[in-house]
Give the backbone structure.
Amino acid sequence: MSQLVVDLASITGIVTGDVTNVKLWADTGATAGAVDGTDTQVGGAGSVSISGATGTITFSTAFTVSAATNYILQADVANLVADDTVTLALPSGNLTASGVTSGASITASGSATNVTHTQDAGGFIPRPFAAAPATPRFISRPRILSPNP
C-alpha cells in the first residue's frame, strides 16, 4: 500500500491543528480491536487537512498488505467540547497499492463502515483504554482487503 486516505465529513468544532499524533495500526496483536504492544504501526504519520465541514487524513509511507487485515486509526484531539463531531470514511478508491513483486496496480476491494465520533457533555469519548490518556483519542477500525501479487 503506497497511500491510504481517510475522508472526514460532517465536522463540527474540530480544526486541523486540533488533531495530532495520528497513527495507523495493523491490528494483528494479542488484543483484537485495541492498540496493544504487539500491534504494528504502518503508513507513517498521518497528515491531517480540515477545511470547514470536510477533510482528510493521509498516510503516505508504503507498507505491505499480504492478507485481509483490520486497522486501527488513532489520533489525539484537543479542544473538544460537547457535540464536536467528525465522521470517518475509507472508500476503497482512497487506497493506492501495487504488487510488491510485479509492481502492477492493485484495485482495492472490501469495505469499511463509516464511523461518527461525537464528544459527549461528560468530557470524554468512550474508548478501549484501561486509563484515559491526557488528550481524548478517536479510534476507528477499518478493514482493508487487498491481495499482494
Observations:
- Residues 3-144 form one domain.
- The CA atoms of residues 73 and 140 lie 5 Å apart.
- The chain has one domain: 3-144.
- Residues 126-138, 141-149 have pLDDT under 50 and may be disordered.
